[in-house]
Amino acid sequence: MMSHDLQWYYPEKISEALKLIQKEGVILHAGGTRILKTEPRNLKGFVDISHLKLNYIKKEVKNIIIGAGCTLSDVINYCKKTNSLDGLCMALAETASTPLRNRITIGGSLKDFPVWSSLYSPLIALDAKLELAGVKELCSLEDYVKKNIIKSKHIIKQVVIKDDKDIICRVMRFNLVRFEYPIFNVAVALKVKDKVVMDSRIVITGVKGRFHRFKQSEKVLNGSTLTDEVIAKSTEYFVPKFHHDYKYSPEYREHIAKVYFNDIVKELKEDMK
Ligand SMILES: Cc1cc2nc3c(=O)[nH]c(=O)nc-3n(C[C@H](O)[C@H](O)[C@H](O)COP(=O)(O)OP(=O)(O)OC[C@H]3O[C@@H](n4cnc5c(N)ncnc54)[C@H](O)[C@@H]3O)c2cc1C
User: Which residues contact ligand 1 via a Cβ below 6 A?
Assistant: First the structure.
């Protein structure tokens, strides 16, 4: 049961919010969907983010910039309206339910990084960068996790994604029932010119180490046209490692993930026509 003596703070400046979360037991409250479920221990207060003006999506030169306070629904609506970031849009549209998508925020989802995250695989595949409050340099989403920045006290201000029409991206999630938390999410992003793959990023979440990039599979795709042989070779190197759990064996999930990866690349090949 969460304490009733929790202190709520409603700062209007990010610098103020940053100071507040340095206090012991005080954390940010965005959509609240994870906090409610996990009821973190030793909690003393919440810093509400709704007055921090982090709810925006804008295009700046070659980037699409998403404020951390945007809900999943805000992002889905933007993508549909502007016909951009298809893969991300697809992944978010399958997440949870409409009322939840209207609450869950981008910042809360990134800091939380649940094993069922629908956001991480497309964003890492799209090489998204994060701007953290009070930090000048952008950090890649990969480094945010790998360098354990995710564990520090910080505020995600915005996510920066390249707006490049040559990049095509698709995502698939594995779950038996649509509303169930996905067991894993696979995303593939390809930069394509004249039907040749110039660059690729292949990512899975829900695996050991939280996420994995398949650099050997990417190497096979880079510089090639997507023939059946190239896709088969790339799939050979796509070997995700899963933890044991009571539902499915790691071998079974590995097999399904390989099938999904193969399907995604074949669909991307169709998209290139
Ligand atoms: C039934 C259900 C099904 C779901 N299914 C899925 C799914 O399929 N895929 C998926 O991806 N998600 C899914 N979710 C959402 C996911 O589990 C988390 O609840 C959600 O991502 C948390 O986002 P939030 O905005 O509610 O964050 P909050 O609960 O408000 O906060 C989560 C954490 O992030 C911190 N935080 C918040 N904002 C920031 C910020 N700007 N910078 C730094 N730290 C911050 C908070 O202090 C807290 O530690 C589901 C949730 C539910 C309840």
Answer: 27-35, 37, 49, 68, 95-96, 100, 103-105, 107-109, 111-112, 114, 116-119, 154-156, 181-182
Q: 15 with 134: CB under 8 angstroms?
A: yes
| Residue 57 DSSP one-character state | E
Residues of the chain falling short of pLDDT 50: none
* Spacing, Cα 196 to ligand 1 middle (Å): 37
Q: Give the distance (Å) from ligand 1 centre to CA of residue 26.
A: 17
Of 132, 162, 192, the one marking the end of a domain is 162
CA distance 221 to 268: 12
Domain boundary residue, one of 121, 136, 162: 162
pLDDT digits (tens, 9 = 90+) for 154-163: 999 999 999 9
pLDDT digits (tens, 9 = 90+) for 47-87: 999 999 999 999 998 999 999 999 999 999 999 999 999 99
CATH number at residue 197: 3.30.390.50
- Residues in the chain, how many? 273
